[in-house]
Fold this protein.
Amino acid sequence: MCAINGIINWNGVSNLHNEQIIASLKKMEYRGPDFSNTHSDANSILGHNRLAILDLNPRSNQPMLSENKRYAIVFNGEIYNYKDIKKGLEQKGYHFNSVSDTEVLLNGFIEYGTEIVHKLRGMFAFVIWDTEQKEAFIARDRFGEKPFYYYYSPDGAFGFASNLAGIVPLVGKKLQICKQSIYELFSLQYIDVNSCIYKGIQKLAPGCIMTINASGIKTETYWNPNYKDKTNSNFETNKENLHQLVKEAVAEQLEADVPVGLFLSGGTDSAVIAALASKQKQDITALTMSVPDNKNSDEAEAASFVANTLKIKHKIVNLDNNCVADLPYVLQNIEPLADASLLPAMAIAKEAKKEFTVMLSGDGGDEVFGGYKRPLQYRKNTFSGNSLTKSLVELVIKKSDTNPFDYGYSKITDARIYKWAGVETLYYLRSLPEKQARDLFRTNQKFENQLVKKYKEASNFALSEEDKMLYVGVKSNLTDDFLLKMDTANMFHSIESRCPFLDYRILEYTSHLTIEQLMPNGIDKELLKSIGADYIPAEFFKLPKKGFSIPYYDYLKTSWGDILLRFMQEGISSDMNLIDSKTVIQLISSYRANPTFKIGKLLYSILVFEIWLRVFHLKMNPESIKLI
């Protein structure tokens, strides 16, 4: 886990470019505090900040050069099956000077070319520069666990970095904020991979590779989840096969030359990871975040039950609401992200860092095993409407902030949407109402609904509506919210987080199962719970799902509402023609008179953006923003 950056310019690189690289590395120092270095030639400068995980010896520092000095690599992530790849390369006559996965990746590219990505199990974003061909090869892992930002200027200069704070110094010019991205933030609480808060900066999508030379850029997709071809296997066979795959993934991801721990909530996903890890590493320690003041969110009791059952060490960390003070500091590094669990995730990562450098989590379990109950809910409420009912429901959603449609909206549930309008309409529910968007942004610009776009794209990879929902989940929330949150929260404290459920072989197996095969008795994530029941009493898996967050809905009624009100009165975003202050002030007033989850979520997203605007875009001192 590291930070990478670079500038490639076919007209040649200069001292100015080198200064930009150094400034960028400095911004990303927290991602790789163990070692920092650059490598340059006539047309490129590559930079790397290292968080040492495998082969702590300096021989594995980056940028790393091939034996003949033709190729240079900068790599962020881990290749979990590097030993298998290395064995095959040694049989072909390759010699290795380290025991790191970086050298295996570099030699693997030399031997297999771009096909190397199909051999990799892991999380990664890397760039390999060919000094002879003057060509770069770039790849990002299948799910997008590792971020990759880049820009490409009209004169052919290419720059890249691991986060927004790293890429901005490489651009070398003032950047404009993108309203489509603000719309997505306010609608979804995150910004889609196809957008960026700054115009001109892009993100390489998960499962994609890129080749760039003096002639231009070529981007290709090398992997997509495919739900079309179904198998005819029974439940016990599927359970046995998946059990083995998850067991192998956990074993591979426990490997490190630094201390490894577990994040353990009171839910199914992390409990299964803990169970399998405990059988392979008996001295493993699990950390749980407790919210003692909120029994609806607190998972400490359930997590303790799991830890005691598995006989593993267990530490409970009480959530300190003062963690909200970290928000302006983390927003100095990233695109704005309004996932309210980011701050608790940072708080437990901070505690984990006292003992560990690598932490395993249960992220991805819902997306891979059919969680969130939506496929099951759809089964019970299959679409039985027509074009008229669909149009009527969509109209109510789009105009939900105006009378009389607001009353109709209050009666809408997911089940009713499925039944009378279909799955596609569900994704309109996650966008701002038309009038509200016009008022907030003072524009008639038509914004793109990225979830609807992904739903339509899903038809290429799935036939049933349930499978299309699973596809959208993998391609949206998982990448752009949950994985970004985990990367941001953990790297803020120089922790590498790993997700065994995102071994692509597991999804490639479950995607070939029907919903009936995954959950034959209508039990959410039934296959995964059945695996877990081999280690933990089955009753545990009947507990209701919880999740930790910060009580922003309460804060907005008082102090945070006052802060947002002050921001609006300052008029910074309004003067920049980004947000209409009067509309937000009206929303705050409305929320305080009649608090609703929908408006609270929107106001929190606006607050996050306003803080980001100050500490990132305008470079104000985060100490000037007191959230507690």
